[in-house]
Amino acid sequence: MNIDIKLHKNDLPEDLDLGKIVAVDGEFMGLNVKRDPLCLIQISSGNSDAHIIQLNRENYNAPNLNKILCDESIAKIFHYGRADMAHIKYYLKTDTKNILDTKIASKLGRSYSDSHSLKTLIKEFINIDISKQFQSSDFGGELSQAQLKYCANDVVYLHKIHEELQKILVREKRLNLYEDCLKFLKTRVDLDLALFKDDIWSH
């Protein structure tokens, strides 16, 4: 697949229309939200495009991106949105609304597998074996072409993957359970930011 990759400094262009369903992913300096800053947000309309926003870490001023993230009329597809949403809320000061999540959908629908990574889902549903070589690379400085390709891969396939997972959820009569899990995701993010990492329902 040829991917149209565009790198934007600080924010998305004001007049960019990505449609009503976008795929979103973030890159951070680590998984500790309050220590490891949000560096990039990548977003795709699902038409073999990837818009990569290199955020201004001095002020995180990105009004055009924020407008999309908090727009309830635009669905946002994540893979493990919990981590991305926490960083977005902490650094961009916005709640991401109208969430879909391929990791949650996979865990509920693909009970025949123990692997729910994005790499696994791309291989199963798109039949492409992507490289995750740059997963742990430094996204805080100048970005290489290989890093940009890695970022693009994290969003360009999510529309198709979510579509296929939804078919399984409908077939297995688990769609309502998936939708209820999505409703709780904002609260799970708030619990993470309040440093409640454990399962609060456990004994």
From TrEMBL:
Gene3D superfamilies according to UniProt: Ribonuclease H-like superfamily/Ribonuclease H (3.30.420.10)
InterPro entries: 3'-5'_exonuclease_dom, RNase_D-like, RNaseH-like_sf, RNaseH_sf
Entry-linked Pfam families: DNA_pol_A_exo1 (PF01612)
Lineage top rank: taxon: Bacteria
Residues in 3'-5' exonuclease domain copies: 3-170
PANTHER family, per database record: RIBONUCLEASE D (PTHR47649)
Designated name of the protein: Ribonuclease D
